[in-house]
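Appendix C reproduces, verbatim, an entry submitted by the partner laboratory led by Prof. M.T., so that reviewers can inspect both the input and the predicted structure.
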Amino acid sequence: MNADTIKKFTEKWADLFLANRDALVELDSVAGDGDIGLVLSDGFIKVRDRIITSEESDVGKLFYQVGKVLSSEAPSSMGTLLATGFMHGGKILRGSNEFSVEDLCRMFHGFADAIMEMGGAKEGEKTALDSLLPGLRALENNASENPSKALSEAVAAADQGFENTKNMIAKHGRIAVRGEDSRTIADPGAKAVAIIFEGMKEAV
């Protein structure tokens, strides 16, 4: 995988976030302020437009650029978390023109570390981490497989992680004030991360 692969990622992310915009708005209207679908669909369209015209071949710099675009074009708490994750993860791969599934795992470890530090959350608290970390573990467990197989397993794990948020009590964000009543509500941030894995799977 190389810079062209990342460009394909951005095309699929733009398509999928646009296709899921209303569903994310509906989820976030229950769990937050209702803007996640609009902000992320607009943000990833800008990401696509910026990255596909880039002549950069360094894959770490391209992932970093994904985060930089999101930081300015997706002005919301989730947009900021994803931007921080991509920028931190991109730094890990800087200096290479190709990346493997193992490298993608390293990037997502940096991604997860950055958003845990920024948001103060951990797995099991009804956040994006509840799809990100299961997806990452599946990716690691299938790192010896071809990228399509590995990412398919990651998508399945991330989707299940999103579904599992319906059984969790929220510890962060506006929804946390509901306490026990938050248990049956799915987390839109976890859905957004599942879409990121889905876009990568479709791209490869």
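DSSP finds nine helices and no strands in the chain. Additional entries are available on request from the coordinating office.
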